[in-house]
Design brief:
The chain is an alpha+beta fold. The protein folds into three domains: 20-185, no CATH class; 274-464, no CATH class; 482-598, no CATH class. It is 45% helix and 14% strand. It has 19 helices and 15 strands. Strands 1, 2, 5, 6 and 7 form a five-stranded mixed beta sheet that branches. Strands 12-13-14-15 form a four-stranded antiparallel beta sheet, sandwiched between helices. A hairpin with a 6-residue loop joins strand 1 (20-31) and strand 2. Helix 3 (97-122) runs antiparallel to helix 4, helix 13 crosses helix 19 and helix 15 crosses helix 19. It is elongated, with a radius of gyration of 32 Å. The chain starts with a helix and ends in an 8-residue tail after the last helix.
Length: 606
């Protein structure tokens, strides 16, 4: 199913030839047309990272790619320094120098044999020129290597080197080279068996193993350059089926290569991948037919979200319309690495219409009243439930599996795990002390995390008990739940203290938030006493109208809670409701304060 789904992907880029993959090419070996010299050029360019630092980056090119096992296997016209230059790997032990030199010599011989076979088959003059240059003793190589800087010398033993003659293009990417290498890659992995391919359903020669590998740099939690998409190299892996390899799962060469190429393209994409290189796992997604703007889940610009809403209401898709709507599918694959193997963490396969409807419902259930951040992406919501390190800002670590749980909730309408609500509540308590940070940037990050955390809490409460709770986006004046009302009351008391005393070293949130959010009754006596003191202080300061207004709001909340009784000890769902009431009341107070400041008849001080 996975290989078939990957073969259904059709990206905007050019089709990747069979036996090729996109990889970084660090150097170009340019042979002089007379085969009497050469020059070696680094392809690295300086690029700025997100944190403002600079790094050197090599360009990505389509290059020959085939799975290497134990013995040396050359790639046509583009390989590492051992094959292209006959350069031994650097070793610390002098006793191993002779062995590495012999291995490098063998690699260079195999590389030359492949070039000669290609030249004989196609008559490529550039390939013959390279062979004459090699017969001449590779003139110019030592001088070219000696002119490289220290960084390039270190990368020379790690990166790919492409070959070209004069100003002509690279040998490996000529049409004749593509045809030659594709046929070779297919034949090298194809067995003598002909069977019905499980991916395309055609009767074709099938491969014993996949002819290509995944690009290791695109796979989280692995340091190898090549990763196997499928690995069935021992009997137990085939679950009792006949033999090892792909004998129990016949796949033709075209589908095998297409699946690997599609995976590498998606994993390198900025729009079809969620999760960075440093994360412990990542997710790629794709659709059949028209491409939807599903990436809105990670970058929820309000305008993009509204387009989703409008498309759902009108029965149209955000980007284009196809006639056979019922045949369109959405796929999402969450993965990580384990040494040289791919680990599948999650797999989603749903009708595209269902996914679009689920995404709209997800945003409706998780929107916040924060005017600056109405919607949040899945990664930011996940990070808001993880430990907060002020120096990391918005990029603090997320709890393991939290992003995948949010993703499945958004795409498939699944419930979130209960422990995620507990994490969100605990983080709300732990981070309340950061809201008064002197650093304005960090304080802004904390407020943004609080809004993202409310999005998680609201989503979970609405998904669990939509009939009993149905927590709206904005403050619900009609919700009489005692936990919700107690949270609102705490926010009003906090606002009262600020209006009466201004900024203080220790606010009631600093002193009482943690206990009040778990057991409001345990701190009610202290908070009631402070409420009276702050009302008197506000009236004495000349803000009598403000004191009367907030006293009315407090009195109304007291009256409603008195009927229900103040909660003593609350389960986590009630604690989440308390935090929701607190958060929404604060947002409402901010909104009212902004309106008063803009009003020409303003008589109250905020």
């Amino acid at each position: 199913m996975l290989l078939r789904a990957l073969n259904q992907y059709r990206g905007d880029d050019d089709v990747v030839p069979v036996g090729y993959a996109r990889k970084a090419v660090g150097f170009v070996l340019q042979i002089e047309p007379d085969a009497r010299g050469c020059s070696l050029h680094s392809q690295y360019e300086v690029d700025a990272t997100d944190d403002g630092k600079q790094r050197r980056v090599a360009p990505t090119r389509l290059v020959p790619n085939i799975v290497r096992t134990s013995g040396p296997v050359p790639m046509l016209g583009c390989d590492n320094a051992g094959y292209v230059l006959g350069r031994p790997k650097p070793v610390d032990d002098p006793a191993k120098l002779a062995k590495e030199a012999a291995v490098a010599q063998l690699k260079a011989q195999l590389f030359d044999q492949l070039i000669q076979e290609y030249a004989s088959h196609t008559g490529d003059d550039d390939a013959w020129t390279f062979l004459r240059w090699r017969e001449n003793g590779s003139p110019g190589v030592l001088d070219s290597v000696g002119r490289l800087d220290d960084f390039s010398v270190k990368r020379l033993d790690l990166d790919l080197i492409q070959i070209q003659v004069g100003a002509s293009g690279p040998i490996h990417f000529k049409p004749a080279a593509q045809q030659f290498w594709s046929a070779r890659a297919t034949s090298s992995k194809s067995g003598s068996t002909t069977s019905i391919c499980l991916s395309c359903g055609q009767l074709r020669p099938v491969v014993d193993t996949l002819p290509q590998s995944l690009t290791g740099a695109l796979i989280p939690a692995t340091s190898t350059s090549n990763v196997a998409l499928l690995s069935v190299n021992f009997a137990a892996a085939s679950r009792g089926a006949s033999g090892t390899g792909l004998r129990s799962a016949p796949i033709c060469a075209e589908c095998a290569s297409g699946a690997v190429s599609a995976f590498n393209t998606l994993a390198a994409s900025e729009t079809n991948r969620w999760g960075g290189r440093s994360d412990d796992r990542a997710t790629i997604w794709w659709t059949t037919g028209t491409t939807d703007d599903i990436n809105v889940l990670e970058n929820p610009d309000p305008e993009r979200v509204r387009r989703f809403y409008e498309a759902a209401e009108s029965g149209r898709r955000p980007l284009g319309v196809l006639k056979k709507r019922d045949a369109e599918r959405f796929y999402a694959l969450t993965f990580s690495g384990n040494v040289a193997r791919l680990v599948i963490r999650d797999w989603i396969d749903l009708p595209l219409d269902n996914v679009s409807a689920n995404v709209v419902a997800w945003f409706e259930a998780s929107a916040t009243p924060d005017p600056a951040h109405e919607y949040f992406g899945i990664s930011e919501m996940a990070r808001s439930c993880g430990d907060f390190v002020p120096s990391d800002g918005l990029y603090s670590a997320m709890p393991e599996g939290s992003r995948e749980a949010l993703l499945r909730s958004a795409l498939a309408g699944a419930d979130l795990p209960h422990n995620m609500l507990t994490r969100a509540v605990n983080r709300a308590r732990a981070e309340i002390h950061y809201t008064s940070l002197a650093d304005a940037r960090q304080a802004g990050v904390v407020r943004r995390r609080a809004s993202a955390r409310f999005a998680v809490i609201r989503l979970m409460l609405n998904r669990w008990k939509p009939k009993e709770i149905a927590l709206p986006k904005y403050l619900d004046e009609d919700l009489d739940d005692p936990a919700y009302l107690s949270g609102r009351l705490f926010a009003e008391r906090e606002s009262l203290q600020h209006q009466a005393l201004g900024d203080v070293n220790s606010s009631i949130a600093d002193r009482f938030f943690e206990r009040a959010s778990a057991s409001p009754m345990s701190v009610e006596h202290s908070l009631a006493a402070l409420e009276k003191q702050h009302l008197k202080a506000l009236a004495r300061s000349g803000k009598r109208e403000a004191a009367v207004a907030i006293d009315k709001r407090l009195g109304a909340l007291h009256e409603r809670i008195r009927v229900q009784e103040i909660p003593k000890r609350m389960p986590v769902e009630q604690q989440a409701l308390w935090i929701s009431g607190y958060y929404q009341q604060r947002q409402e107070n901010f909104r009212m304060a902004a309106q008063r400041k803009q009003s020409p008849t303003n008589t109250e001080d905020d």
